[in-house]
Amino acid sequence: MNYSIAVLEGDGIGPEICAGAIKVLNKVGEKYGHKFSFTRYDIGGAAIDACGTPLPEKTVEGCLASDSVLLGAVGGYKWDNMPVDKRPEKGLLGIRKAMGLYSNIRPAKLWKSLVSASPLKYEAVKDGIEIIIVRELTGGIYFGERGKGGEGKDEYAWDTEKYSVYEIERIMKIACELAMKRTKKIISVDKANVLESSRLWRRTVHEYAAKHYPEITVEDMLVDNTAMQIVKNPAQFDVVVTSNIFGDILSDEAAQVTGSIGMLASSSLGDGTRGLYEPIHGSAPDIAGKDLANPIATILAAAMMLRDSFSLQREYEAIEKAVESVLEDGYRTADIMEEGRTKVSGSRMAELIAERI
Ligand code: IPM
Ligand code: MG
Q1: pLDDT of residue 116
Q2: Per DSSP, what are the bridge partners of residue 132?
Q3: Among 113, 116, 173, which Cα is nearest to 331's?
Q4: Which is the closest atom of ligand 1 to the Cα of 92?
Q5: Which residue is closest in CA terms to ligand 1's atom 8?
Q6: What are phi and psi of 11, to 5 degrees?
Q7: CB-ligand 1 contact for 93 (6 Å cutoff)
Q8: 42-73 per-position pLDDT tens digit
Q9: Strands annotated E in the chain
Q10: Active site residue: 142, 277, 316, 331, which one?
Q11: Looking at the domain that runs over 119-258, which CATH code has it been given?
Q12: Ligand 1 atom at minimal distance to the Cα of residue 104
């Protein structure tokens, strides 16, 4: 089969980590008889520099015409003081919206060979961690109405958190489908003791599960308590469903407790099979161009694309196994380096993984 992949390298380490993923995909293609073709489009700061906007029309068109999209990372010091509409982040939010990608799946897993990288005590992580955060991605306060006015001490600004039953149900459906393949347990995170939008969220997730997935247990957890529980007892979580802003915050926390944010990938999907796959980490401008960046998260994002957009389960597993085996043999990029291991560059890490496909 032929698959056309739009590649949005973005900023900072984006180009180098995408190169690593492309290397591995090409090897998978060779081995399993697929042809992957890659077309690059600008996004984020790179797009601002090239065409004055973080999300050029050509990029949106290219992504919509592709079979799926691989993204590196956006953002950097250079654009930090740009006006809101000319910030790299706007490109990322915009492409998610333009592609209708309302569901963002962020698995935070503790790799066996990297248990000691977790900042938590051994007691807290010894049973393993695999928290799958299902984050609503195109609604809520990141896309709600906003405004500003006044002046001096009376100057003000506001944003709105708003969710409809329709939006909550469609993300809950994704969480339920995932939970059915796993523990059949979902923790839904909200702030229903304060927010009206959270009360609707809470009522809707229960009604939806009771009606469509009666085998699933849905437990509610307030977001502040969740933040605490993730560091106290991360093993209690499996599938977590939550709003855009809470998912944004909690997914960074969950990633960090695994100790290896450079290892974690995420997928964003809508109603079809075309998705956007990216590492969870950012553009790390401080190490860009030094061949230090860990390409594994992006390589695993590419693997998720094979599984979730193209239904290539075997190929997904081949990549995951290759990553595991390279780690087991002691190879580490700088971010996950420990005493007694072999330190390698980002490009070498990608090569090692590709060789083992
Ligand atoms: C993420 C990032 C983005 C988000 C930013 C860069 C707009 O933090 O993917 O989690 O908030 O969604
Ligand atoms: Mg974030």
Answers
A1: 86
A2: 107, 239
A3: 113
A4: 7
A5: 248
A6: -115, 175
A7: yes
A8: 999 999 999 999 999 999 999 999 999 999 99
A9: 2-10, 35-40, 68-73, 103-109, 130-136, 146-149, 156-159, 185-190, 217-222, 239-242, 265-269, 275-279, 331-332, 342-343
A10: 142
A11: 3.40.718.10
A12: 9
Same fold, 1-101+269-357 and 119-258: yes
Say which amino acid occupies 155: E
Is 191 an active-site residue? yes
Q: Are strands 185-190 and 331-332 parallel, antiparallel or unpaired?
A: unpaired
What are the pLDDT digits (tens) for 243-270? 999 999 999 999 999 988 899 999 999 9
Q: At what angle do helices 44-51 and 88-98 cross, to 10 degrees?
A: 100
Annotation marks residue 142 as catalytic:
yes
* pLDDT value at residue 115: 87
CB atoms within 10 A of CB 70: 27
Query: Of 309, 247, 301, nearest to 278 (Cα)?
Result: 301
265's CB contacts (< 8 A; 6+ apart) are 107, 277, 278, 279, 280, 297, 298, 300, 301, 303, 304
User: Residue ranges per domain, the chain?
Assistant: 1-101+269-357, 119-258
Choose, from 80, 85, 224, 286, the residue flagged as catalytic.
224
**Residue 248 C-alpha to ligand 2 middle, in angstroms?**
4
**Ligand 1: residue whose CA is nearest its atom 11:** 248
Class of domain 1-101+269-357: alpha beta
- Identified catalytic residue from 162, 252, 291, 343: 252
pTM of the model: 0.92
Ligand 1 pocket: which of 248, 264, 281, 298 to mutate (most atoms <8 Å of CB)?
Answer: 248
Our mutation pick for probing the ligand 1 site, out of 8, 43, 80, 89, counting the most ligand atoms within 8 A of Cβ, is 89
Cα–Cα dist 282/262, whole Å: 9
